[in-house]
Structure formats: structure tokens, C-alpha cells
Fold Na+-transporting NADH:ubiquinone oxidoreductase subunit B.
Amino acid sequence: MGIDYKQLFMKQKLMRKVIISLLPICLASVYFFGLRALALMMWVTVLGTLTEWFFEKRNKKPISEAVIVTCMLYTLTLPPVTPFWVAGIGIIFGVIFGKEVFGGFGKNIFNPALVARCFVYVNFPTPLTMYWSKPASEFPGGFGLWLTETVDVLSQATPMLIFRDSGQTTSYLNLFLGNVAGSLGETSALLILISAIYLIYTKSASWQTMTAVLLGYLTMSSSLFLMGSATVPHPLFGLLSGGLLFGTVFMATDPISSPMTVEGKWIYGILIGMTTVIIRGYALFAGGIMFAILIGNTFAPLIDEAVKAYKNHRKKVMA
């Protein structure tokens, strides 16, 4: 007897569109860093799906296709050399404490993929920050390798880490195309922008949120850069590096953990963009977008309530 997919998985057209938008980035991760990227994603997806199934079966509910998106996004935020056991612990923690403890799909406050990423980042800093892989530059690239050459942070790190340590910036062309060291899915600005266009065209993600994050980032980054802050890079460099675009397109726009009101999306996005610059420039973390989005998730319900209260107040005044 075969498995009935319709009964096992909850049908979610929106999630399938997100999966489609992620496929080119997944292929690029294999090209740049090797077949290990694909194996890591399969491993994470199996563990994440089984974790959700374990909790949902008690209530006789199907697995959400959203958990597949969570697993894909989480994997794409990891360095290519992340140990399988670390990645596995992270996705199990993310699904349980980022989703199931709140009641499952549609009830979570925080983005589960970011909960998983934050957990492994804080608890396993060495494999998450000290070892990276050189990107392949010639065809067939990583499709003929298990993993491209591994380097430590002292010899070649991500663009943001290099900037924080030495003030040097990477070629803008390499940043745009993805030919730099970094997490599996965050290096190519070109592919991320193409995915953003697809998601906006298919109405699968909020363009207001994306625009607001970039607006908040560019406003804060440009202001501090022009004031001469040595720890804040040129706004264009920061825009193309450090996972900012990936987080903006795929994480900040999560419909469950972000505001529902249009006005709330603008406030939420600007908050994330500005907070990212502050964390990047003045905290211990080179990225910042991960923590900024989780902070935004915290305030998302309050932002919606404030917007609704303001609208109701305006109606009473106008009446």
C-alpha cells in the first residue's frame, strides 16, 4: 500500500510557490559549494518533516508543506561545512520551539527557520563562524565535487567578516553573482532578486515588507556611513552581502510571523532594516538580519494592534 500524499501533507499552494522560487538558489548552492549542500538539505528536510509528523499525528493532522520551506530556508542559511549533526539538532529545535509549542502551523510567533538558525549560531559558534568553503568558479563547479576547498576564517571568510576584521570590501560583481564564500543560499544577489520578482508577481510575498526592509536599511546605513562610522560599510556593499537580501525576501515576508495590516508591514520592515544596520555595525555579530527579523517577529502582533487601534480612533474622530 502506497503513501497517500494528500492525507500525509496539507495542501498549500503558497508554500509550493516559495519552494519553486528557492530551486534556482538550491542549484546554485550545489554549483558553488558541492553536492554536500544537497545532501545536507535532504537530511534536514527528513528530520524536520519527521519532527512535525511526530507532533501532528497525535491530533490526526497532516504535515504542513510549510515545514519543507522551513527546512530549505534553514539549510540555505548554513555554511557549506556545517556538521550534519549540528544541522539536525537545529531543525529539530526550530520545528519544536519555533512552531509546535505555539500550536503548529499558523500559530507560531517566530519564524521557525530563524529560530533553528539562531539556536545553532549561539550554541555551536565554531562550525557556524570559523570554517567556510571557497566557491567554485568554473563549470561543472560543485556538481562534480562533494565539497569545494575548505578554508578557515583567518585565510578567507565571508565578505562581512572580512570587512569587520580588516575594513576591506569584496568585488561588487562577485557579490552580485555569488562567487564569494558564505552560507549556502545567501551569496548570489542576482538569484535572490529573481526569486523576489517571481514571489511578488505570483503574490506569494509582500512587496511592501521587502521594500520597507530595504528602505529602513538604506536610510540607517547611509546616515551612519556619511557620518563616518568606521564599522558601517558602504550601503551598496552591505546590501549585497551578509544575507540581507535573502532574509528580506524569504524570512521577513513570512505571512505567519509578520504583520497582517499593510501599514504594519511598512513599520515592521523599516524596524528590521534599521535594526540590521545597528547589529551589524555595533554588536558582535557580522550579519544582523537574523536577529533583526526575530526582533521584528516579537513586535509584529503589537504593531498590528497599534495600527488597528489608530484606525478605530480615526474613525471615531471622523464620525
In short: The chain has a mean pLDDT of 87. The first helix runs from residue 5 to 8.
